């Protein structure tokens, strides 16, 4: 489905376009496409907040890219040696060591000359107003590292040490939206909500979702002036790469194109994937809150309700840049674990995890507080895909659990 993200444009329902899939999922998917599907389009703020939160099919939501809020973030050091900026759709600037250079000045050498003409053209297109956007549906499970490896006690400390070192190198910049005046926090929320639907629809793993959001945020930290019409292309490329990295049987390229209602072609998606990998310098093994949660639970096991509630809270944190990109993935995971444990059985941060991680309740307290606020307000979000996902039996209906009114350490 094509998307119109121009100012004051409204989303409208369309019948599905023809798109022949090589998968045996075709018939089932086409039946679902007969329903209205999520559109990453534009609605007024009143329409966004006036919509019903209790729709039977979250595929039939209309979403808004309207967000007038101004966000303030703390700076974060770049995790790459160079940044790629796109300015006014007429020049590309590659910055190394903080020095900006206009494209065409023969600067492209070493690492950066991997960005060939086709890549530069696509980066320029990201800054153009051409482009459309759409959406799709549903969810998954598991972690980047096999759980059985995490349960091997003799490796746990080495795994944790490596993840803690890596999470610093692969952190997105909390303030990256300042470099994208055409993209708002609300647009990103809608995109993440849609990616959750796609992950659910293809039964992908939770780690695939977490990796895709990390790739998305890191990419947007390195480029500038990405336009509304290209945001979904960036998002689906992030998910494509994450699924190739994490899944045994990732969806096909045709299926990824299908999720966007063919708003983009296979060629565009392949080109975007190529640019993505070059911008991230092929550094794809990024630690995520999901990985840390699995590790923490291998050290100190919890009941199924606590485990799924911690995963639910950690997944909710993917929706918001502010404040959660200010915390490392390990802190978000520790906060989610602590909040879930207190909600289910009124326990907090166990001594075993304090010893293992070095984190005290004072260290993770601010993150727990922010996660608690998010948990309480989750029902009021226009985007309800994550809550609906965790209402299922598979996840022990944990999104029905009432959050605690107050936390003991506040």
Annotation keywords:
410 residues, mainly alpha, Cyclin A, domain 1, two-stranded antiparallel sheet, 46% helix, globular, disordered N terminus, cell division
Distance between the termini: 47 Å
Strand order of the largest sheet: 1-2
Largest sheet: 2 strands, antiparallel
Structural class, judged by helices and strands? mainly alpha
Shape: globular
Broad CATH class of the domain at 289-400 = Mainly Alpha
> What is the CATH homologous superfamily assignment of the domain at 289-400?
Cyclin-like
Low-confidence stretches: 1-115, 128-147
Task: Give the integer mean of the pLDDT values.
Answer: 73
Subunit structure: Interacts with the CDK1 protein kinase to form a serine/threonine kinase holoenzyme complex also known as maturation promoting factor (MPF). The cyclin subunit imparts substrate specificity to the complex.
Function: Essential for the control of the cell cycle at the G2/M (mitosis) transition.
Organism: Larimichthys crocea (Large yellow croaker)
InterPro entries: Cyclin (IPR039361), Cyclin-like_dom (IPR013763), Cyclin-like_sf (IPR036915), Cyclin_C-dom (IPR004367), Cyclin_N (IPR006671), Cyclins_cyclin-box (IPR048258)
